[in-house]
Amino acid sequence: MRFRSKILAVLTVVGLLPLVLLGLLSFSVNRAELERTASATQEALAQEAARGAEHWVARGVEGLRLSVSILPFEQLRPQEVSAALHIPYGQLEFVDALALVDDRARLAGPLVTEARKPSSRPPFPAEDLSRFLAAAPVELAMQAGTALGAPYLSSSGEPHVAVAVRVSMQPPRAVAAQFSLRELQQDMQEIAHPPAIAFLATAEGGVLANAGAPEAPRAFGSLATAAVAARAPFSRTMQGTDGRDWLASAAPVGGMGWAVGVAQPAGAAFSGAARVRHYTIFWMGVALLLTALLGAHLSRGLSQPVRQLTQGVRALAEGRYDQKVLVDSGDELGQLAGGFNQMAREIRRRDEEIRAWNAELQQRVEHRTAELKMAQDQILRNRRLAAIGSLGAGIAHELNNPLTAVAGLISLARKQLGEASPQADTLKQALEQARRVSKIVGDLRQFSEQERTHGGRRFPLSQPVQSALDLYA
What is the pLDDT of residues 433-457, one digit of tens each? Predict the structure, then answer.
């Protein structure tokens, strides 16, 4: 792995790892906190809507009860009942139909269902009468005075709820009213801002009001059932019919067995956390770009001086001292390059000194070798001279004896013959030659003695020159 790659890897790890960890931690914390906040907000919204629905139903029931309580149904003739029922029918706009029924939920008077002038509400269908009377809780109203029935759907699919108010015990009579839930539908639409949805449903999953896609409440029916069963709000992340995750909340509507559900896509609910993630990814990209640029600049500022230092070390190892490391910077690398160049110059100087010392040592060795050779030659010469001296001494000793005898005999012969004898001159010359031979033998003996006893001593050249002249003569 190259030095530049190592620098980039280290900078990437050091620069990105804390950012990634911080981003993940921030995203997790923000998502968890946002999920709690969004769930609490949604639960509060669902509870508020549930309280509004409960209050609306309670106001409607109470308004109906107060309106019919002032009417003397025991004193009214059958033809006057319809006119009396028009009074609460005109006051309560959410009522679609009013009827006076007996304790078996049978009509005891005409059904009041006239269309309202300012409203575009369609007239009451005749086929819905049986459904209305079947849903009216007359038996419960005869016992408790006022009763709310279970929701049901009209022939047009519109949800309604029937309310019964006891108005007479003898004969048993009650006023049954059909409440329209259009106002609750408007309430759901007011609290549902797309892409969020809001719905009002029963514990069994029946939809009473829906501000959203028709199939949306089916995915969250279990949450509404759980909220009604527990009588407490619930929030949960669930999968919707579109396959996306939704944050859904449900709150029970009092003890009516209804629940208000509010849901929104998890992406919209946790958009703050998503923005944190996007910001983290963006800054990770920025950090990666800055890391790459900084790493390239730093690695270039480091790798090039290191490469030059490597080349300088290689050149120094090959004995090329003239190559310099050119690093023009005032940092530690520049100081290192300057120190390396100084070291190279010092090594060059030391190498030159060592080479000079080697040359001088070589000369000294050669000189000492020559002196040793001369000493060896001198020893050999001395040995030869010693041998010659010994030989000369032996020869001189051997020649002296006969020469002495010859000289003695010649001297005796001259003495016997006398000076007048014709052989006197010959004998005289013979005696001189014998003396010369004796002198030569003595010189030879003296030379051999000097070589053996005084070898190497300085002596004047006049004596051997004179001896040579004498020998030549």
Answer: 878 887 787 777 776 666 555 555 6
Separation between Cα atoms, residue 150 and residue 257, nearest integer Å: 9
Q: Domain spans of the chain?
A: 71-180, 336-456
Q: What is the DSSP string of 305-330?
A: HHHHHHHHHHHHHTT-TT-------S
Most confident region among 250-264, 285-299, 347-361 by mean pLDDT? 250-264
Measured distance CA(456)–CA(462) in Å, rounded: 17
Most confident by average pLDDT, 14-23, 160-169, 239-248, 463-472: 160-169
Residue 128 has pLDDT above 80, yes or no: yes
Task: Render pLDDT for 328-340 as a digit per residue (tens, 0 to 9).
Answer: 676 776 777 777 7
Pick the CATH number of 71-180 from 3.40.50.920, 3.40.640.10, 3.30.450.20, 3.30.1330.60: 3.30.450.20
Residue 193 φ then ψ, to 5°: -105, 120
Write 166-171 long-range contacts (CB < 8 A, 24+): 166/141, 166/142, 167/68, 167/69, 167/71, 167/73, 167/100, 168/73, 168/74, 169/142, 170/74, 171/102
Q: Would you call 96 exposed, middle or buried from its count of C-beta atoms within 10 A (0-12, 13-18, 19+)? A: buried
pTM of structure:
0.59
Contact 124, 113 (CB under 8 A): yes
Q: Is 456 left (phi over 0), alpha (psi -120 to 50) or beta?
A: left
Residue 364 amino acid letter: R
- Residues 261/217, Cβ–Cβ less than 8 Å: yes
Cβ atoms of 9 and 299 closer than 8 Å: no
Q: Are the CB atoms for 184 and 157 separated by under 8 Å?
A: no
Could you give the angle at the alpha carbon of 416 between the alpha carbons of 413 and 417, nearest 5°? 85
pLDDT tens across 176-206, in order?
A: 999 999 899 999 999 888 889 999 999 888 8
Tell me the three state secondary structure of residue 151: coil
